[in-house]
From TrEMBL:
UniProt keyword Ribosomal protein present: no
Organism: Geodia barretti
Upper classification of the organism: Eukaryota, Metazoa, Porifera, Demospongiae, Heteroscleromorpha
Annotated signal peptide: none
UniProt protein name: uroporphyrinogen-III C-methyltransferase
Domain Tetrapyrrole methylase: 19-179
Listed SUPFAM superfamilies: HemD-like, Tetrapyrrole methylase
Coiled coil: none
Length: 475
């Protein structure tokens, strides 16, 4: 089962691994049954998460019986069995008009040569439909030989799909007589789904998943976990296998006194300020984090977006503009590019003399925008709205991921570059075998200044632009 599914679990959920594979299992089936009953009996909400469909060779029926006999209420969420999903992701319909009008799913864990097999191989060899074998890698050669002995043609198409639907999916095509040899030469190993029958011959025409531009590429995301979802989604839509290694973590301030005092001075919080209240001003948000941090304080004091009614709002980047839009604010200014020097240049034709400007941001970051507006005559207030910290266990996670081999390392800010090198204690050798892709010239400049080789720079300085650059490169 893809570990990415666990990201949907709440942060305080207990995660218990009970996986099984041939010759190795964390818990026996009886122990799993007992664990379900024990946890549910404590009044907990328990999810028994399975790959595929729980009632197709998933022991779901057995587990449901145990729950029913212990008077524990449950519900079943049907899944898509790997017998269908792996085939579809390989470009194979298990049924096709005028090709196959039926399909059969069998467990391959039983030796087909034993005297009293419970599987009617003689019948299956003559149905003319599609035969899907699950959990059959160890016995596959014997199964294919048995089908030939029972009358199935040696040149019947066969497709073997390893890690079906995963980004590391691999498919080997062949026939009843040669596919196992081909699969071993390709290095296939369990889990493997075998699709046997004429429909397997449709794969070359219908394959789609492994034709995506980034298919088979491992891309490392170094953004904070709260920011990574958009980049991860875009990369996976293009077929990439994404690995997350947050080199920074966004955290609230330990003390909001200075932030609250500044926001109150601009009339955003209902607090008395000895400096009076500034009613007309610019507020320029450089990131979605800045939006979340400021509105977190506005919300905490019972206010809402109406406190910005007399201000002019700037949003650096479309994602920041969208975050403001979700708060009911349409940004008055969105620069054509997110690079601070270019933003200053774009704003330079406006009158700034004596104009108050509020710039909420991180505890680290460049002062280019603040200095540039101050040089134009603005009265700039740069206030720390949130902090960036290094995630726990980051060093161990970084070395483990990078040692597995990564095709591309993405950097979306200067801080992600600096933090990753800090985590690695300056050891750049782990990054040398990967392409390094940066979201823009500022991030690239930081990387190069720290001794890294930058291979790709996004033309458009957004996560969308970064993904487009990767797609163009690999195509």
């Amino acid at each position: 089962m893809d570990p990415a599914l666990l990201q949907s679990a709440s942060a305080d959920a207990d995660l218990v691994f009970v996986g099984k594979e041939r010759g190795r299992q964390a818990l026996t089936q009886d122990e799993i049954n007992d664990l379900l009953v024990e946890q549910a009996s404590q009044g907990k909400s328990v999810v028994r998460l399975k790959g595929g469909d729980p009632f197709v060779f998933g022991r779901g029926g057995e587990e449901a019986q145990v729950l029913a006999r212990n008077s524990i209420p449950f519900e079943v969420v049907p899944g898509i069995t790997s017998a269908i999903a792996a085939a579809a992701y390989a470009g194979i319909p298990v049924t096709q008009r005028r090709v196959a009008t039926c399909f059969t799913v069998v467990s391959g864990s039983e030796d087909p040569a034993k005297p009293e097999s419970s599987i009617p191989w003689d019948v299956l060899a003559r149905t003319g439909g599609t035969l899907v074998v699950l959990m059959g890698w160890a016995a596959l050669q014997a199964i294919l030989e048995k089908l030939q002995q029972e009358g199935m043609a040696a040149d019947t198409p066969v497709a073997l799909v390893q890690w079906g639907t995963w980004k590391k999916q691999q498919t080997v095509d062949g026939t009843l007589s040669d596919v196992v040899t081909r699969a071993k030469e390709a290095g296939l190993a369990p889990p493997v789904v075998a699709i046997i029958g004429p429909v397997a011959g449709l794969r070359q025409e219908l394959r789609w998943f492994d034709r995506q531009p980034l298919f088979g590429k491992k891309v490392l995301i170094t953004r904070s976990r709260t920011q990574a979802s958009r980049l991860r989604t875009l990369l996976e839509e293009q077929g990439a296998e994404t690995l997350e290694l947050p080199s920074i973590e966004i955290a609230p301030l330990e003390d909001n006194f200075e932030l609250d005092a500044t926001l109150a001075q601009y009339g955003l919080l209902p607090l008395d300020t000895p400096f009076g209240t500034i009613s007309k001003f610019w507020a320029i948000f450089s990131s979605t984090n800045a939006v979340d941090a400021v509105f977190g304080r506005v919300d905490a004091y019972g206010n809402d977006s109406r406190v910005f009614s007399d201000s002019t709002i700037g949003a650096i980047g479309p994602a920041t503009a969208e975050a403001l839009a979700q708060r009911g604010i349409k940004a008055d200014f969105i620069p054509a590019t997110s690079v601070s020097e270019a933003v200053v240049k774009e704003l330079s034709d406006r009158e700034w003399s004596g104009v108050p400007v509020l710039l909420p941001g991180a505890d680290i970051g460049r002062d280019v925008l603040a200095r540039g507006l101050a040089d134009l005559g603005a009265k700039v207030e740069r206030v720390t709205a949130y902090q960036t910290i290094t995630p726990s266990n980051a060093a161990e996670d970084a070395r483990k991921l990078l040692s597995q081999g990564v095709d591309v390392i993405t950097f979306t800010s200067s801080s992600t570059v600096r933090n990753l090198l800090d985590i690695l204690e300056g050891d750049k050798s782990l990054l040398e075998s990967s392409l390094i892709a940066c979201i823009g010239p500022v991030t690239a400049g930081t990387a190069e200044g720290l001794g890294l080789r930058v291979d790709l720079k996004a033309a458009e300085h957004t996560v969308e632009g970064l993904v487009e650059t990767l797609v163009n490169y690999f195509q």
